[in-house]
């Protein structure tokens, strides 16, 4: 046998192997490689396998300057790129003709109409996922007009979101019948509708507001692999088998509560392909689940003592039962399946009680339940739905009693007067606390977390003089009662202090380490920023939304991104107070009036790219002359502007101007007229 040893190049490998290789390369690195001619085709195919096109009314970047016409890579979604508008997609195709997405997500049918008009050849081999307009009064015939149907028919509409029920004989359903996924919203869906249509390709069905009885379940299309809906158990008799489609992989059931308990078990063990199930119920019924489950979210009766035998392949479980049988489990204990990496459970399973011994004059801990956690557990969430009150003993969680050396993410919810103990969580990266009141032991526990990078506290007590571990980079203290804050000697870079009680920011009540780069102070009661405040020298992002500011002074000189919407700025506000490096500025939803924009010249801010002055009362003209040449996105929507001028043409980098919801003359709604006031690359939204 002769073996051909001709050398194969990387490009001779099959596409499937290319995809596997590129899946190990960070998206940000692929984004940099897109300009290399030799591998451009392969890189673009992997970068833009899935493209989402959304229309934003707010600032495009959301204070993220890395978003461009080429999109922004997201390491959490390999192969997915999000773009701002249909125009951005057309510019992308023009700049990179090799881009050929496999899946296209469009936010509304007007975007799809635009793409069909301008680049139909791109769409012929693309699976399209289309969001229909949200309107309670609109049915499918109003959502998809005859013109839409004729236009969309040649293309592969793979998914429709927000479908409303209409006439079953409507021509619109001919498009829907070929879909793989349908989401039905805001409607009591007629289950017998499925008998009137042959959904040969339907794989995923979401019935958001429709309740089905047991006898209706059998009418669901047999092709389904994912189903989400509400089950009306009041109309389901004990003898009636819930005949779900046999190939279901994901099942989500939201119960209607009929006001009576179900005395019979609900058996779905015949669904041998089922890997994920979520069952939300206020009843105490028992569900018999298939053995080969991967993920369970269930608040009904579940035998935790045999969990490792019943579901050996389980990787994630969420279990918040209405009642825990402590007596039974205290004898048998809990042994979790070894493959579990994510557990969410009730605090009753893990709490220990603290008993005071008069004989020895000290406290000792006694566990309710012996628990054997899996060796590779990564995430643990504990929620306390019941407030334990007993004068004889308190409650604690001592993590040293368990083998949790691999734990990286810990979440503790509704822990009032609960002691948290232990010094063995050496690999913990993030700690989330919600409705948590720390006692004297918590600070000691916190400082044992040497590798902690993220600390999030929501509605927690204390915290104004918090000592955090050295490696914490992100600190969140939201919805508390903070009126002053002192943080020193830490390496925190991102600080979130939303929804607290700050009134004045000054040097005596607000101290931060120099490492902080981003601060969110939105939804407070701030009325002034004093000159004594010492801002971190590297601060680039500041969010002051939804406060009571009437003026802006003493801003950090390093600031690049400032959001100060929903304050009390009026015609006396001076817009010459911003730092020169400012890139993105949001002053929307204030009280800027009249021709106020003329009172300041923004040309000096030569790095400004995005300016949002929407939802004010501006009537400015010639505003193009007041803006720097660097401006790309200008939002003047919801003002009192009545006319345009040719000054916009002087802004060569301007890509989009939003003038919607103004008082523009009707003649300006004509596309030919609009073109006189803009450059070729500028889009004016009216």
Automatic annotation (TrEMBL):
<dbReference type="InterPro" id="IPR001611">
    <property type="entry name" value="Leu-rich_rpt"/>
</dbReference>
<dbReference type="Pfam" id="PF13855">
    <property type="entry name" value="LRR_8"/>
</dbReference>
<dbReference type="Pfam" id="PF00560">
    <property type="entry name" value="LRR_1"/>
</dbReference>
<protein>
    <submittedName>
        <fullName>Uncharacterized protein</fullName>
    </submittedName>
</protein>
<dbReference type="InterPro" id="IPR050333">
    <property type="entry name" value="SLRP"/>
</dbReference>
<keyword id="KW-0433">Leucine-rich repeat</keyword>
<keyword id="KW-0677">Repeat</keyword>
<dbReference type="InterPro" id="IPR032675">
    <property type="entry name" value="LRR_dom_sf"/>
</dbReference>
């Amino acid at each position: 046998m002769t073996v051909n040893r001709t050398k194969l190049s990387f490009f001779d490998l099959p596409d499937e192997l290319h995809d596997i290789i590129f899946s190990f390369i960070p998206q940000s690195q692929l984004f940099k490689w897109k300009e290399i001619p030799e591998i451009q085709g392969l890189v673009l195919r992997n970068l833009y396998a899935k493209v989402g096109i959304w229309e934003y009314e707010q600032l495009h970047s959301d204070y993220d300057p890395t978003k461009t016409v080429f999109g922004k890579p997201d390491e959490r979604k390999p192969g997915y790129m999000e773009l701002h508008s249909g125009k951005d997609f057309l510019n992308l195709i023009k700049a990179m003709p090799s881009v050929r997405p496999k899946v296209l997500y469009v936010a509304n049918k007007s975007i799809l109409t635009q793409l069909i008009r301008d680049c139909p050849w791109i769409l012929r081999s693309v699976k399209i996922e289309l969001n229909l307009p949200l309107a309670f009064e609109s049915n499918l015939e109003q959502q998809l007009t005859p013109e839409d149907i004729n236009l969309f028919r040649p293309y592969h509409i793979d998914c429709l979101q927000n479908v409303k029920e209409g006439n079953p004989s409507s021509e619109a359903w001919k498009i829907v019948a070929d879909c793989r996924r349908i989401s039905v919203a805001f409607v009591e869906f007629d289950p017998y509708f499925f008998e009137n249509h042959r959904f040969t390709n339907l794989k995923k069905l979401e019935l958001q507001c429709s309740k089905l009885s047991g006898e209706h379940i059998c009418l669901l299309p047999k092709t389904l692999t994912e189903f989400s809906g509400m089950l009306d158990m009041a109309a389901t008799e004990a003898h009636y088998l819930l005949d779900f489609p046999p190939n279901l992989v994901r099942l989500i059931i939201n119960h209607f509560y009929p006001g009576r308990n179900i005395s019979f078990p609900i058996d779905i063990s015949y669904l041998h392909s089922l890997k994920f199930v979520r069952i939300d119920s206020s009843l105490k019924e028992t569900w018999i689940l298939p053995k080969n489950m991967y993920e369970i979210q269930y608040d009904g009766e579940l035998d935790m003592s045999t969990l490792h035998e019943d579901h050996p392949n389980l990787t994630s479980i969420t279990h918040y039962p209405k009642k825990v049988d402590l007596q039974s489990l205290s004898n048998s204990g809990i042994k979790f399946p070894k493959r579990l990496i994510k557990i969410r459970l009730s605090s009753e399973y893990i709490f220990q009680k603290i008993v005071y011994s008069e004989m020895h004059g000290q406290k000792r801990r006694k566990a309710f339940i012996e628990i054997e956690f899996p060796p590779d557990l990564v995430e643990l969430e504990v929620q306390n739905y019941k407030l334990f009150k007993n004068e004889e003993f308190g409650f604690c969680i001592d993590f040293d009693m368990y083998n949790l050396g691999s734990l990286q993410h810990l979440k503790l919810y509704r822990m009032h007067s609960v002691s948290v103990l232990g010094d063995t969580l050496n690999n913990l990266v993030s700690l989330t606390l919600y409705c948590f009141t720390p006692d004297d032991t918590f600070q000691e526990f916190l400082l044992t977390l040497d590798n902690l990078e993220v600390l999030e506290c929501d509605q927690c007590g204390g915290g104004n003089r918090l000592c955090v571990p050295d490696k914490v980079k992100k600190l969140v203290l939201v919805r508390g009662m903070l009126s002053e804050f002192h943080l020193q000697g830490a390496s925190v870079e991102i600080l979130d202090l939303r929804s607290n009680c700050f009134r004045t920011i000054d040097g005596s009540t607000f101290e931060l380490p120099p490492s902080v780069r981003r601060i969110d102070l939105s939804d407070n009661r701030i009325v002034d920023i004093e000159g004594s405040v010492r801002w971190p020298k590297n601060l680039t992002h500041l969010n002051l939304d939804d406060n009571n500011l009437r003026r802006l002074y003493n801003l950090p000189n390093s600031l690049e991104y400032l959001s100060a919407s929903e304050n009390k700025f009026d015609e006396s506000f001076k817009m010459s107070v911003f730092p020169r490096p400012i890139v993105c500025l949001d002053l929307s939803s204030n009280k800027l009036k009249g021709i106020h924009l003329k009172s300041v010249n923004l040309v000096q801010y030569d790095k400004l790219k995005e300016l949002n002055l929407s939802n004010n009362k501006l009537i400015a003209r010639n505003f193009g002359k007041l803006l720097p040449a660097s401006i790309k996105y200008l939002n003047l929507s919801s003002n009192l502007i009545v006319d345009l001028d040719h000054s916009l043409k002087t802004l060569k980098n301007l890509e989009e101007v939003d003038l919607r919801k103004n008082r523009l003359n009707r003649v300006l709604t004509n596309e030919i007229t609009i073109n006189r006031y803009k450059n070729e690359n500028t889009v004016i939204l009216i």
